[in-house]
């Protein structure tokens, strides 16, 4: 399971990188061919490691963004 989450985290990173570093959670879920739960775990992993920023809440309002500097992490 950890391997699949890690692979999916790579797909999330690639998706964000090809979409100017930001997207909505809803678009990400639609744009990656993986189970919803796996994508959400991958997003959580990347957020916990400080690689992405999450703004807003819920599926409709959550925006994801690749981190660009250490100042953005709090």
What does this structure look like?
By secondary structure, this protein is an alpha+beta fold. The protein has a single domain (2-72), classed as Orthogonal Bundle (Arc Repressor Mutant, subunit A). The protein is built from four helices and three strands; from the N terminus they run H-E-H-H-E-H-E. The chain has helices at 2-18, 25-31, 36-48, 58-61, and strands spanning 22-24, 52-55, 63-66. It has a three-stranded antiparallel beta sheet. Helix 1 (2-18) crosses helix 3. The N and C termini lie far apart (29 Å).
Features:
74 residues, alpha+beta, Arc Repressor Mutant, subunit A, 3-stranded antiparallel β-sheet, 4 helices, globular
List the helices and strands and how they pair.
Blueprint: H1 2-18, E1 22-24, H2 25-31, H3 36-48, E2 52-55, H4 58-61, E3 63-66
Antiparallel strand pairs: 1-3, 2-3
Task: Kindly summarize this structure in a few lines.
This protein is of the alpha+beta class and 74 residues long. The chain has a single domain, classed as Winged helix-like DNA-binding domain superfamily/Winged helix DNA-binding domain (Arc Repressor Mutant, subunit A), CATH 1.10.10.
């Amino acid at each position: 399971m950890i391997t699949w989450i890690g692979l999916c985290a790579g797909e999330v990173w690639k998706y964000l990188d090809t979409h100017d570093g930001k997207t909505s959670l809803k678009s990400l879920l639609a744009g990656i061919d993986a189970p919803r739960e796996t994508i959400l775990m991958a997003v959580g992993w990347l957020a916990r490691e400080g690689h992405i920023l999450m703004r807003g809440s819920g599926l409709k309002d959550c925006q994801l963004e690749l981190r660009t500097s250490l100042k953005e992490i709090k």
